Fold this protein.
Amino acid sequence: MSLLEVQHLRKFFATQKAVDDISFTVEKGSIFGLLGPNGAGKTTLIRMITGIFYPDEGQIIFDGKKFDPIKDVGHIGYMPEERGLYKKMKIGEQAMYLAQLKGLKRNEAMEKIKEWFVKLEMQSWWNKKVEDLSKGMSQKLQFVTTVLHQPKLIILDEPFSGLDPVNSNLIKDEIYKLALNGSTIIFSTHRMEQVEEICDHIILVNKGEKILDGSVKGIKHQFKENLFNIGFETGPVNLNGNPPFETVGKKEHSFIVKINDGNKPNDVLKYFLQQNVAINSFNEILPSLNDIFIKLVEGTPLTRQFQAVTA
Amino acid sequence: MNKTWLVIKREYLTRVRNKTFLLSTILLPIVMVLFIAGSVFFAARPEGKKKIAVEDRKGELARFLKSDSSKIEFSFNSGADTSNFDEKGFDGFLYSVDTAGRYFLLRTVKAASNETMDKVRDRLNNAYVSNKLLEKNITIEQIDSINAASRSHYTVDNTDEKNKNVNSSVNSIIGFASGIIIYITMFIFGAMVMRGVMEEKTTRIAEVIVSSVKPFQLMMGKIVGIGAVGLTQMLLWIILIFIISSVAGALLPADIMEQVKDIQKNPAMMTSNPGQFSDTAKGLANLTNMNWPLIIGCFLFYFLGGYLFYSSLFAAIGSVVNEDPQEAQSLMFPIMMPIVFGFIILSTNLDRPDSPAMFWASIIPFTSPIVMMGRLASNPPVWQLVVSMLSLIAGFLFTTWFAGKIYRTGILLYGKKPSWKEMIKWIRRS
C-alpha cells in the first residue's frame, strides 16, 4: 500500500519550470530515494510535499486522502538541506519547542526527547547552547527533532553531510530501524553510494522532470551492459577458437567480458570449461547508480539556465 | 496548543529572560532622570556677574541705569574705553555711536549671551522712561517705587474652554517626550523584529519551522512576541518613572508642595488669586492635573499601533536580505524616512499643536504615532483622535497583509537579494 502518491505535480516560478509534471508513488515502510543534480527541482518538490508550497497543478495523496497541509504536517518530519537551529537557545528547549510545533504535548514531548537523547548519547547536552555544538552534533540534534514526533513520512535532505563515519552509521542504523517500525522515508541526496546502500526505490529528477523511476535492482538491470567478471585458478589464460564474448578488461587471473548478443552467461562458462580452465569466480557486473546518474544527467548543463515560462 | 501561541511564547521568553532586557529596563529611567536633572542643573546655573563699563555722554544714564546685584553691574566714569576695558577688569564696554545717542554697542571680549543683551536693552529703555518721568516732575522716589512694582504686577497664563491650563511648557515637554520615546522605540523594536527574521534566515532554521508552521503564523508570532516584550518594558518604565518621580516629589521644598496641594484642592484659587503661587507650584499642579489615564492609554495605543504598522515592514526587509547588514540598511531607508519625517514635524511644530502640518501628520498612520502623542497634551478634538486611531489600525492591517506576502517568499529564498521589481511581483502573484 502506498503512503504517498504524487500525481502530475507542477510548479512554475517566474523564471523557471521548477517541477514539470512529476508523478510517483512511495510505498509504506520503504526507503525512497529522490535523486537529481543541483537545481533539478528536488527541493521544490519536497516543499510541495511538506506543504510549504502549493502546487500549481496536480495533487498529492497522503495516507489515502488528499494531502491537507494543516492537518498532515504533524505526520511529516522534514530535515531540509539548508537547516539550522536557534543559536542562543538551549538544546533541550529547542527540541521541546520544535516538538511542540509538531503538535506534541509537553510531557509527551519530554518523554520522547529523553528517549532519543539516551539513544544517541546526547543526555549531557540538555543545558548547552547550540553555539557550543560542533556541526556534527547539531546535525544529530536536527535528526532527533525531525523524527521525534514519530512521523509517518520522514523526508531527509542530505542527512549525512558533515557527519563523521561513526555518527553517519549511527544515524543510518536509526533510519533502518524507523523504516522497520513502519515509517516511510524519502531520502534526497546526490551521494549515490549511500542511495545504493539504503534505498529500495528511487526516482531521478533532472530539469524539473522525472527521468527514471524504479527499484534500485531493477534500474541496475535496466542499464546493465552484460558485463561479467570471471576469475581463474591459474593464469595466464589464452583464448582459442570463437568465444561467445568480447574481452573488455584483462588481468592475469581475471577477465571482464561482455557477452555477445544472443548468448547467455552459461555459454561463457561452457566455453571456459571446454577450454579446461579452472574457474573460481563468476559474477555479473552491474553499473553503479553513480554511472547511471552521470550517464543520464551528463550533457545537460550543470546549473539550469533561466528560461521564460509560457504556460 | 495553537502554534502561533508557541511562537509568541518563545519570542517573548527568550528576550525577557535575557540579561540585556533587565539591564536596559532598569537603566533607562535612571539615565533619563539623570539627563533631565542634568539639563535642568545646567540651564539653571547662573551666569557669572557681568561688569559693564558705560560711557554716559549725556549724563542721563547714571541715575537710572540700575545694577542688578547678582547678574549685572554698571559702572560709570571708570575711565574705560573700547581698547582697555578688558585690562581694567570689565567684561564689557557700552557706548553709543550715533549723534542722537540712541544706538549703542556693547563691546565684549567674548560674545555676550542673549540673556545679557536682553537685560542691557531692557535696563537702557527703562532708564529712558525714568528720565522722561523725571522731566514731568515726578520724584525719583516715586519713579523707583513704580519701577519696582511694575516688574511683576501682571501675570498671564493660557487656558482653554474647560478652564485648563494649555500650551504651557509642561504640556509641550510631555508631548515631546512621549513623541520621542515612541520614535525611539519604533526603531528599537522594529529593528529587533528585523534582526530576529534575519537570524532565522541566516541560521537556516526558517525552513525547518515553516514545515510545521505557516510563514504568516511565524511572522505574526514574532511580531506579537516582540511587541509583548516592548509592552512589558513600557509598563515597567511607567511604573519605575512614577516611583522615581514620587521619590523626587518628596525632595521638593515643603512650601511648594503645600501650594500644589492648595491648587489641587481648589483649582478656582489659581484663577482668583494667582499671585500667591509660585511658577514651580503652578507647573507641578499642571502636571498632576493632566489627564494621565488618557495620556498613558494613548501612549500605549500609539506605541503598539506604530509598532505593528512598521514591524511587519521590518520583518519583510529581514526576510529578503541575507547575511550582509548593508543590504538591510539600503532597504530600511524608505521605511525610516516617514518615521524621521514625523519626528521632524513634531519638533518643528511643537509650539503650534493645531497647525495644518501637525493635523495631517497626526492623522496619517505613517507619522501619527509620533505626532499625535505630541499633540495630546494640548487636548486635540476627540474626533481627530478617533480618526487617527482608526486609520492607524487600518494602516497596520494593510502593512501586515502586504509584508506577509513578501515575507512568505523571501524567508525561503537563499542567495541574491531580490530587486524591488521582483518583490512587487511576489505581492501581485498571490
Strands of chain B lie at 50-54, 72-76, 92-96, 104-108. The two ends of chain B are 29 Å apart (CA to CA).
